[in-house]
Amino acid sequence: MLVAIGLGYLAIGVAIAAVLAIVRRPSIADAVMVIALWPIAVPIVLAGDGRDGDRGVAELLAALARASASPLAAVLPDAETARVLACRLREAGKRLADLDLVLARPDFDPRAAEQRALDLSTRGASVAAATAQLRVRTLGQLRALRERYHHELDEVRELIAQLVAQAELVRLQPALAHGSGELVRELVDRVEGLDDLFAYQASLAGTGSDAR
Fold first, then answer.
1. Residue 114 CB neighbours (<10 A)
2. Residue-range domain boundaries for the chain
3. Are 30 and 45 in contact (CB under 8 A)?
4. Which residues contact 40 (CB under 8 A, 6 or more apart)?
5. Which of 80, 85, 49, 51 is nearest to 163 (CA)?
């Protein structure tokens, strides 16, 4: 009975992946992810736009799929938790991509902003110089925020890579599975902690509004 259910699950995943291959042409990683975790992966793949957030989601779900085929399956998050984690990871990737685009603009060059503030101050335009200094501080906050996103996503990617390696190790030595729960908890905690970064970004936006 369980074998039949498992085969049916895989058959559905293969069928969905085949349809996606026609209408969307997903990557090989996306196709494998859909077959293994189709109940939560399909909406994510369909909504994807190829940005860093989507690659991070693909890596996460592929790692969970790989680990689910090992003795680590018992300590993995359930499907709903995995979906929520994937959404957080995608959102963080999109925010980082947006920050990269904004900070690449010539008018967001911190050195130019500092020079502008200095020039205004030298000319005695104190009010304009104060506003220019405010812009310098704002640009600094944006760059610090981008670095925090880079740091957090790098940590998540390393944990995902370790999960894949741990799954292989446990597959070869099942007795080690009992000590792997901490790794899964750390990965979940790190992704859930992205909410704190989202809240910090929101507080920066609120501070900017107050300053105006």
1. 16
2. 1-47, 51-106+134-211
3. yes
4. 61, 79, 80, 82, 83, 86
5. 85
Compute the C-alpha angle 55/58/62, nearest 5°: 145
Q: How far is CA 133 from the centre of its chain?
A: 33
Q: Model pTM? A: 0.70
Q: Which residue has the tokens 């501080």?
A: 137
Residue with structure tokens 């908890």? 185
7, 50, 14: which is closest to 32 by C-alpha? 14
Per-residue pLDDT tens for 69-91?
778 888 888 877 888 888 898 89
How does pLDDT run across 129-166, given as a tens digit for each residue?
Answer: 999 999 999 999 999 999 999 999 999 999 988 988 88
Q: What is the mean pLDDT of residues 30-38?
A: 54
Tokens of 58: 């693909």
- The dihedral through the CA atoms of 159, 163, 164, 169 has a sign that is positive
What is the chain's Cα-based Rg?
Answer: 23
Residue (of 185, 136, 144, 134) closest to 162 by Cα position: 185
